[in-house]
Specification:
CATH topology: Nucleotidyltransferase, domain 5
Shape: globular
InterPro entries: RNaseH_sf
Number of strands: 4
GO molecular function: nucleic acid binding
Number of domains: 1
Structural class: mainly alpha
Order of helices and strands: EEEEHHHHH
Protein name: Tc1-like transposase DDE domain-containing protein
Distance between the termini: 20 Å
Strand order of the largest sheet: 1-4
Largest sheet: 2 strands, antiparallel
Number of helices: 5
Strand content: 5-15%
Amino acid sequence: MVWMGIAANGVTKPRFVQPRDKINSEYYIQKILKPFLKVDYCRLYPNSDAVFHQDSAPSHASRVTQKFLTDQQVQSLKPQQWMPNSPDATPCDYLLWGHLKNKLHKRKVSTSKNNSFFFKRLLEKR
């Protein structure tokens, strides 16, 4: 699995989740959100003038994750404000993932290590 974001100022670094990893709130905060805030958020929005939007995955919507974002002073949409099924609000779901999956399947990649390698190469070509 891959976590990635699209912003008005660019694209985040992809973060890869191993197939057997369980993505609970703690994993999501430690392995995804903290690196995102340290590396990507500061690069894409040095003035912290963004609104963070995510989907309704349990690890995203949990009280623990929402509190973490609040404690980090990240302005974000609360779960009740999320717009499911909106191509404008979730371009990764409606554009990016399908496009990248098609490209990966054409290469018949079989391992997660190879998937990560080819995924990174596809992103470099954009």
